[in-house]
Amino acid sequence: MKEFRFNINTIRPEESFRDVFEYFNDEQAFKYSTSKSMMKTQETITLRALEILNIKKNERILDAGCGCGFSSIVLKQLGFNVVSFDIVKRLLYIYQNPELNPILADMSFPPFKESIFSAIISISALQWIYRELNNPVMEENLIRLMEAFYGILKPQGKIVFQFYPKNDQIMDRIGSIFKRSNLFSGKYIIDNIKNPKKRKIFLFLSKINKK
Fold first, then answer.
1. Ranges assigned E (strand) in the chain
2. What's the CATH number of domain 13-32+47-134+142-185, 3.40.50.300, 3.40.50.150, 3.40.50.2000, 3.90.550.10?
């Protein structure tokens, strides 16, 4: 994948706004949660992430950075035991779904016991955690997230992150941070690699069990 190079020239929300709270104000949260096209896109990405994970139904799966719950609804309908959480309160409650009962929490500080999830799925959230090269705070948050996810996964646990990095440098840096931790093995899976409008980047990770 070293020959794959890209740089997105358009300014994205995570570059224009200080943080996810500032971006998802009441107006934007309502617009996002009522968008039929966004719902359909999230459904398609979630199904693709499940294909990559390749886990049995009825397993307990965590939707990390669930937003208003589009992916969680898909998981629930497919028969998974889904737990959802996000840090933006207005996103959790603007799209009412009593079956989900999402949790308000930071992705880098998931409030769960150790070894309880078979898998973790995260759709369109990782770019808010790490989006600037040589930013020690963002790198620290990513490392904290990685260690926390390692702890709450079962021994054969797996993760799929789908996210939108600004460029290949950030994508490679995120991959290298996970690799050097020696907590996960994994790889990038990129769909529609030559089509920027349809390109989807997935980071697939498997927990490395320590002896």
1. 60-64, 81-86, 103-104, 117-123, 153-163, 184-191, 200-207
2. 3.40.50.150
Q: Which residue has the tokens 């200080």?
A: 18
Straight-line distance from the first to the last Cα atom of the chain, in angstroms, rounded to the nearest whole number: 31
What does the chain come to in residues? 211
pLDDT in tens, 119-166: 999 999 999 999 999 899 999 999 999 999 999 999 999 999 999 999
What would the DSSP string read from start to end of 122-168?
EES-HHHH--STT-HHHHHHHHHHHHHHHHHEEEEEEEEEEE--SBH
Contact (CB, 8 A) for 133 and 7: no
In the Cβ-directed half-sphere of 63, how many Cα atoms lie within 13 Å? 33
Overall pTM surpassing 0.90 (yes/no) = yes
Question: Is the dihedral angle over the CA atoms 192, 124, 177, 180 positive or is it negative?
Answer: negative
Across the range 72-86, mean pLDDT stands at 94
168-181 helix and 136-152 helix, angle to the nearest 10 degrees: 50
